[in-house]
């Protein structure tokens, strides 16, 4: 790491009184663009695949589609801890700045994809992984930079703004993707180029290393076992939701089972190794701090529930509700992003406010109450009919966003304030790992639940519905044999599955105009799938509500005063942690 470019100015003078606001604005920009790019591709996939001339719903191409979405999340989950540790060792600002630069280079390469079909998809997947590497450098060190810059009494507010911006970026990416893809698919990647270049130059000129780096050895064995274990495990989950043989999912695939058990075994080896070396990558002793352990457990479960909510809402809106209300399938990705804005609004309202109040009254009250509100909103969504009234739907989304905002900001502040200053980089990385892993896990968990529900009733319903509208029995049976995951992705991509299923066979040309219009209109497929889909939604939102309640229980266990308790515990649990007097001095540092 000695060859890293010197992207930050020397620490020649102490930062001025306004430095903390510079750090907040720059790191917030960094996590916003990183999280937006994690989701911006989801809505843009139809335009991207049309641009490179690839049918994403063909049986052999589902893997391209999944890796386009999950590759970014997988890299973010696997590498963020190691990059946070490198920030502790070599300078958080230095690693952060390098992340902006890598992110910009990858964005340019993505927009210049020179290939088509499968080769074009592989180019995009490869550079998305590189882009995720740069984004992980940003997210791994941003919370640590803010924790260094702000006094304890303002830390919750600062981390709240940063964290809620990151979460809001996931949903703003859906809206931005829909708008930009309507112009040109390459614009989806171009938009991050000027932002990342501006951020790189700005951070180089303004950010300072306010904490001295602690040089040490790189835990190579720990890095390798963690990256391999987490990567193999998440890859197994990715292939587990794809069909295998005659099964709707691939959980019986020997390769998937090998990946799941092999990845879990490597992670077990990693945990054993980390307890036996002097300078571990993943400082397991931090889990002796109650606020740190409880906060990360709550964050993991909440991330799983939030990820499931995001994907299920997109499918619900794009595949059923919007077509039933007259929207063309091609327009549903953009409108789904617009109709989900109350969720983002809730984040933006509750995040900074709860972060500010938690600085005065503690994190436990706001985090736990927020998760109870989230669980209540899931139960409300579960009770809605498939063809709901939008006013009630929007109110429940707003309530869910408010609850997640109440939880996320104080929880992040509690986690980061509970560790010694020299371990804030690795703590930030560990926190991000749990959050990113939760999002990746949510896809495997909730898609599997939904696919299993659809597999029991959708094929017969689809075959019978097609035959009732004049489609020959053999053609109808063939169309109904499409894996349910492909039907889900058809709605996810804003495609009319019926046009996709029957168009290539020429069956539509043999029907009357009235039959053809009925099959490819706005109501046939949504009405056909609404029953099986609602059954799947009941399972999904019921599981999500249960996860939110378990998260609330974990949050309540963090202790009465997370910050004070955490600092005291960190002094005991981590070598080189500040003494009780040093922690008290930091807490009394005047607000500037």
From TrEMBL:
Cited CDD domains: MFS_MMR_MDR_like (cd17321)
Keywords on record: Antibiotic resistance, Cell membrane, Membrane, Transmembrane, Transmembrane helix, Transport
Chief place where the protein resides: membrane
KW Transport (keyword) present: yes
Chain residue ranges for the region called Disordered: 564-592
Cell compartment(s), UniProt: Cell membrane
GO biological process: response to antibiotic
Full protein name: MFS transporter
Compositional bias per record (Basic and acidic residues), positions renumbered to this chain: 582-592
Regions of compositional bias (Low complexity) in chain numbering: 564-581
Origin organism lineage: Bacteria, Bacillati, Actinomycetota, Actinomycetes, Kitasatosporales
GO molecular function, one term: transmembrane transporter activity
Pfam family membership, one: MFS_1
Major facilitator superfamily (MFS) profile domain sequence ranges: 23-498
């Amino acid at each position: 790491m000695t060859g890293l470019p010197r992207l930050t100015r020397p620490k020649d003078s102490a930062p001025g009184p306004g430095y903390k606001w510079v750090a907040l604005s720059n790191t917030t920009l960094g996590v916003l663009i990183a999280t937006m790019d994690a989701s911006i591709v989801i809505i843009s996939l139809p335009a991207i695949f049309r641009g490179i001339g690839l049918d994403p719903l063909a049986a052999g191409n589902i893997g391209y589609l999944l890796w386009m979405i999950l590759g970014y999340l997988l890299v973010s989950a696997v590498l963020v801890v190691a990059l946070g540790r490198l920030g502790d060792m070599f300078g958080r600002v230095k690693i952060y700045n390098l992340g902006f630069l890598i992110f910009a280079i990858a964005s340019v390469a993505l927009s210049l994809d020179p290939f088509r079909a499968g080769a074009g998809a592989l180019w995009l997947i490869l550079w998305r992984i590189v882009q995720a590497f740069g984004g992980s450098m940003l997210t791994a060190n941003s919370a640590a930079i803010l924790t260094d810059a702000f006094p304890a009494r303002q830390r919750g507010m600062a981390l709240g703004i940063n964290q809620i911006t990151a979460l809001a970026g996931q949903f703003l990416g859906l809206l931005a993707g829909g708008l930009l893809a309507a112009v040109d698919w390459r614009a989806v990647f171009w938009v991050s180029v000027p932002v990342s270049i501006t951020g790189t130059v700005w951070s180089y000129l303004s950010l300072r290393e306010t904490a001295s780096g602690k040089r040490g050895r790189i835990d190579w064995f720990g890095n390798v076992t963690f990256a391999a274990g987490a990567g193999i495990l998440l890859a197994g989950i990715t292939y587990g939701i794809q069909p295998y043989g005659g099964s709707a999912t691939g959980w019986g695939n020997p390769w998937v089972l090998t990946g799941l058990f092999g990845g879990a075994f490597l992670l077990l080896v990693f945990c054993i190794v980390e307890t036996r070396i002097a300078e571990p990558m993943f400082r397991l002793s931090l889990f002796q701090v109650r606020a740190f352990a409880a906060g990360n457990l709550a964050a993991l479960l909440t991330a799983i529930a939030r990820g499931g909510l995001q994907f299920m809402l997109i499918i619900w809106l794009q595949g059923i509700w919007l077509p039933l209300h007259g929207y063309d399938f091609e327009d549903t990705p953009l409108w789904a992003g617009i109709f989900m804005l109350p969720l983002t609004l809730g984040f933006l309202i509750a995040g900074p406010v709860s972060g500010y109040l938690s600085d005065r009254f503690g994190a436990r009250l706001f985090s736990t109450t927020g998760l109870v509100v989230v669980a209540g909103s899931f139960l409300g969504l579960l009770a809605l009919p498939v063809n709901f009234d939008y006013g009630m739907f929007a109110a429940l989304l707003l309530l869910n966003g408010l609850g997640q905002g109440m939880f996320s900001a104080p929880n992040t502040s509690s986690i980061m304030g509970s560790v010694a200053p020299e371990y804030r980089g690795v703590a930030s990385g560990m926190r991000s790992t749990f959050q990113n892993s939760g999002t990746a896990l949510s896809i495997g968990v909730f898609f599997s639940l939904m696919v299993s529900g659809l597999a029991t009733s959708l094929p017969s319903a689809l075959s019978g519905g097609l035959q009732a509208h004049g489609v020959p029995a053999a053609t109808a049976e063939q169309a109904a044999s499409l894996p349910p995951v492909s039907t889900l992705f058809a709605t996810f991509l804003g495609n009319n599955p019926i046009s996709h299923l029957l168009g290539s066979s020429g069956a539509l040309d043999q029907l009357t105009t009235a039959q053809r219009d009925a099959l490819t209109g706005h109501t046939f497929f949504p009405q056909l799938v609404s029953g099986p889909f609602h059954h799947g939604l009941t399972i999904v939102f019921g599981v999500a509500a249960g996860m939110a309640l378990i998260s609330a229980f974990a949050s309540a266990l963090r202790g009465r005063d997370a910050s004070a308790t955490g600092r005291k515990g960190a002094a005991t649990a981590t070598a080189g942690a500040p003494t009780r007097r040093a922690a008290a001095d930091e807490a009394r540092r005047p607000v500037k």
